[in-house]
Amino acid sequence: MYVGVCRFSFVVVHSHSLKEKRSAVRRLRDRVQQRFQVGLVEVGGQDTWQRADLAFSVLTGTRDAAEAAVAGVLAFTAAQGAGEVTAARHEVLAFGDDWFAAATPWEKPAAGAAAAEEDWIPASWRDEESRG
Question: Of 4, 56, 81, 88, which has the fewest CB atoms closer than 10 Å, so is most exposed?
């Protein structure tokens, strides 16, 4: 299993306000998610009106596929015309059978413990889940 992680700076040259930049980033994020099923997250530059630091990750079965996926997302982002990719850094990490060998047996939490861990979930969501 290989995890590709990428962070890049994206400059929205035509933006003259935070609202314009956020709109451009939102459109880009939606297009990337639709095309690649990858979550694109703004991790820096939230208070600047032309630059956004964005990040995403991919999970694949081979190193080459992870490299290709990262390159594909970056190329697609650059081709959208919403802005410019000015800097990028990515890394591909391997998690093989030796990593999984240290796995511990998973035990289902006791009923009381599970309820305590789910206190943050709104009641309406729990109701939907029980109906669904």
Answer: 81
Q: How far apart are CA 47 and CA 132, in angstroms?
A: 40
Spatial distance between the Cα atoms of 75 and 69, rounded to a whole number of angstroms: 10
DSSP sequence for 82-99:
SSEEEEEEEEEEE--HHH
Positive or negative, the CA dihedral 118, 121, 124, 129 is: negative
Task: Tell me the pLDDT tens digit for each residue of 14-72.
Answer: 899 999 999 999 999 999 999 999 999 999 998 999 999 999 999 999 999 999 999 99
Find the helix packing angle between 63-79 and 18-36, rounded to 10°: 140
The predicted model scores a pTM of 0.74
Name the DSSP letter for residue 109: P
Q: How far apart are the first and last CA of the chain?
A: 32
